[in-house]
User: Fold Oligopeptide transport ATP-binding protein OppD from Streptomyces davaonensis.
Amino acid sequence: MLLEVRDLHVEFRTRDGVAKAVNGVNYAVDAGETLAVLGESGSGKSVTAQAVMGILDMPPGRITSGEILFQGKDLLKLKEEERRKIRGAEMAMIFQDALSSLNPVLSVGDQLGEMFTVHRGMSRKDARAKAVELMDRVRIPAAKERVKQYPHQFSGGMRQRIMIAMALALEPALIIADEPTTALDVTVQAQVMDLLAELQREYNMGLILITHDLGVVADVADRIAVMYAGRIVESAPVHDIYKAPAHPYTRGLLDSIPRLDQKGQELYAIKGLPPNLMRIPSGCAFHPRCPMAQDVCRTDEPPLYDVSEERGSACHFWRECLHG
Ligand SMILES: Nc1ncnc2c1ncn2[C@@H]1O[C@H](COP(=O)(O)OP(=O)(O)O)[C@@H](O)[C@H]1O
Ligand SMILES: [Mg+2]
Assistant:
């Protein structure tokens, strides 16, 4: 396994109290595989990814327990210097907002080139050629001319392609893309997502695709891990989830995807809001919003039940959900 997160717990200590952002997350991704991590805003998706990348805000963040095995090594046991070497070269991250991740006063050619001068000791001229090659790879038209331009001279979609190029530069084994298309309009979203999926296959990378939008992952993900209040509540091959969700929260997310054949109809929304992470509800954290909740859900925290060999659901009533 390329990456395995085991029983990860992360909390934030703030003046108002302790926010339990990640509460025993387990997930894994292999080379050539795409894992989509899904859930509403505030469910702990980014914090988990930041812990994997080693870029968590500490303090106020604190990893209180767990393991993050990357190519068999527990990253949490490495020195910062060793982790820095892994970052960029062996795992890279793509963020939602390219404009704030790119340096506004450096041309994109210089920024892409820096990956090769700094990490690979290349000459500036060779690095520039590599930058053009990468821009071609992510299909930025007229790469030879545009390599001299600055980030603000590119459209949102093109900037996101530059971010993908930066992430790919050193051919990492793992890419984590955190809401990579959220800031783009819908047609551009699909193009960027397709490109990312294509490059992932071509380079045989592991890809963790974080999104709050189930609609964008159907064609690109192999597996889906659904997060709620810092836990994985359902984990399954993508086709299983679309066929029939085994958790009422997943069902809620599925039902809130806008569908072309229902244009004009009011969109379903899960009632209520995700919990405050300083006061996570007892039992199943989803129970106050769940249409299927029973007494046991308010008192007993559901474990991740085995639905099948490759599928788990943290719902006491997963059978009813699956067949209902
Ligand atoms: N820098 C921070 N300081 C304090 N709390 C934070 C910080 N980053 C994240 N959190 C807490 O962790 C929760 C989960 O955040 P995050 O992982 O970013 O959610 P998402 O699923 O939307 O990516 C937030 O709602 C917040 O309570
Ligand atoms: Mg996030």
In short: The mean pLDDT is 93. The chain has one domain: 3-323. Residues 45-46, 178 surround magnesium ion (ligand 2) (CB under 6 Å).
